[in-house]
């Protein structure tokens, strides 16, 4: 709904290996200059404000494009995955409540469910998958 059918055909007709988010910005700049020449924009200060807002919008679009374009290297995700799983394996061993060397009668195994460790595990693994 932001483009006319003719503008959409022109935008889709452009051949570029890159994202074309900048094309409507260039059209807006040309139309703002034409509006100033025709007197629809009162003075140069108003045109300057319009162009500054356009540049701010364009820079935010460019920043979003760069976040999508530059991916996190695979090695980092593998290292973080190994670190998370190693942390929780050591948590399962380290957070046991009974010392087997003490020889408690009738309490050879610790069968308690580590609820908070499981919640922590699900949180970290969920965060890792995101």
Automatic annotation (TrEMBL):
Q: Which reaction does it catalyse?
A: chloride(in) = chloride(out)
State the source organism's domain of life: Eukaryota
Molecular-function GO terms, alphabetical: chloride channel activity
- Keyword annotations for this protein? Cell membrane, Chloride, Chloride channel, Ion channel, Ion transport, Membrane, Transmembrane, Transmembrane helix, Transport
Q: Which residues cross the membrane?
A: 75-97, 109-127
Subcellular location as annotated = Cell membrane; Membrane
Quick check: keyword Cell membrane in the entry?
A: yes
Its membrane topology is listed as: Multi-pass membrane protein
Tell me which GO cellular component terms the UniProt record holds. Answer: chloride channel complex; plasma membrane
Per the record, the similarity remark reads: Belongs to the anion channel-forming bestrophin (TC 1.A.46) family. Calcium-sensitive chloride channel subfamily.
UniProt function note? Forms chloride channels.
What is this protein called in UniProt?
Answer: Bestrophin homolog
Q: To which species is this protein native?
A: Urocolius indicus
Upper classification of the source organism reads: Eukaryota, Metazoa, Chordata, Craniata, Vertebrata
What gene is this protein translated from? Best2
């Amino acid at each position: 709904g932001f483009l006319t059918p003719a503008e959409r055909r022109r935008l889709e007709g452009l051949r570029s290996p890159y994202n074309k988010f900048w094309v409507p910005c260039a059209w807006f700049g040309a139309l703002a200059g034409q509006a100033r020449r025709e007197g629809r924009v009162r003075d140069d200060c108003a045109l300057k404000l319009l162009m500054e807002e356009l540049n701010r919008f364009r820079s935010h679009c460019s920043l979003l494009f760069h976040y999508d374009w530059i991916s996190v290297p695979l090695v980092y995700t593998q290292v973080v995955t190994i670190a998370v799983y190693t942390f929780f394996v050591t948590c399962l061993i380290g957070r046991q409540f009974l010392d087997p060397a003490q020889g408690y009668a009738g309490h050879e195994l610790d069968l308690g469910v580590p609820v908070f460790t499981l919640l922590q595990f699900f949180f970290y693994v969920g965060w890792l998958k995101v």
